[in-house]
Specification:
Layout (H helix, E strand, L loop, with lengths): L5 E5 L4 H12 L3 E6 L9 E4 L5 H15 L4 E4 L14 H29 L2 E6 L2 H5 L5 H21 L4 E8 L5 H4 L3 H10 L8 H11 L11 E4 L8
Parallel strand pairs: 1-2, 1-4, 2-3, 4-5, 5-6, 6-7
Helix pairs in contact: 1-8, 2-3, 3-5
């Protein structure tokens, strides 16, 4: 049985983030999610926050701490895409994606680290993507922001590893979500040809990997990149 922890999942109102929060709730943890709109799963506390705004993150943490106790597990999942080919990519297309996906993780983890240092315990899980190390045409901004999470996690591991704090990266591949469901059938078939498992993953498969990394059994794993991609990104 895993020790019940206070968990915060950013962007927990839809997609993979929602399923991650749902899995933590199912395992008996005290769960809060941040969302700009919408709500997390039943049994979780939803706090409105924007990961590009440090003051808003601070206020969200204060609410969670008051209601559920100090945050022991943080899952930096909130992210955006603005796919466009390099030569057409605007300054804003690039900087807004990096500020949300990488800057957001920085702000959330920095705020969480204070309580983790005091408790001498912490689990930091950063949700990246197979695209981070595999690359994706039209995704220079997104891939750069997602691969940067690896260096971020490894630096945190070197800084905080002696205090009982781990920092790891989960890199999902193609997962059945609302976003993949709208792809044309031929496109889906082409993607599946490139995936050794010959299928898309499920959000639950990602969620169970995240909850395992946050649990009692993974305290000696830190600075790792765990792919959940059916073999698509092998060697990266």
């Amino acid at each position: 049985m895993t020790t019940p922890r206070t968990v915060l999942v950013t962007g927990g109102n839809r997609g993979i983030g929602f399923t991650i929060a749902e899995e933590f709730v199912a395992q008996g943890h005290r769960v809060a999610v941040t969302a700009r709109s919408g709500e997390g799963p039943e049994g979780s506390l939803t706090v409105v926050a924007d990961v590009t705004d440090a003051a808003s993150i601070d206020a969200a943490f204060s609410t969670v701490e008051a209601e559920l106790g100090p945050v022991e597990v943080v899952v930096a999942n909130a992210g955006i895409t603005k796919d466009v080919l390099l030569l057409r990519m605007s300054e804003d297309d690039f900087s807004s994606v990096v500020d949300t996906n990488l800057g957001g993780a920085f702000r959330v983890v920095k705020r969480a680290a204070k309580g983790m240092l005091k408790a001498r315990f912490g689990r930091i899980v950063l949700v990246s993507s197979v695209v981070g190390l595999y690359g994706g045409a039209g995704q220079a901004n997104y891939a750069a922001s997602k691969s940067a999470l690896v260096g971020f996690a490894r630096s945190i591991t070197r800084e905080l590893g002696a205090r009982g704090i781990t920092a790891n990266v989960v890199a999902p591949g193609f997962v059945e979500t609302d976003m993949t469901a709208v792809l044309p059938e031929q496109t889906q078939a082409d993607y599946k040809k490139a995936i050794p498992a010959a299928r898309f993953g499920t959000a639950a498969e990602v969620a169970k990997t995240v909850t395992w990394l946050a649990g009692d059994d993974s305290g000696y794993i830190s600075g790792a990149v765990i792919p959940v991609d059916g073999g698509l990104g092998m060697g990266h």
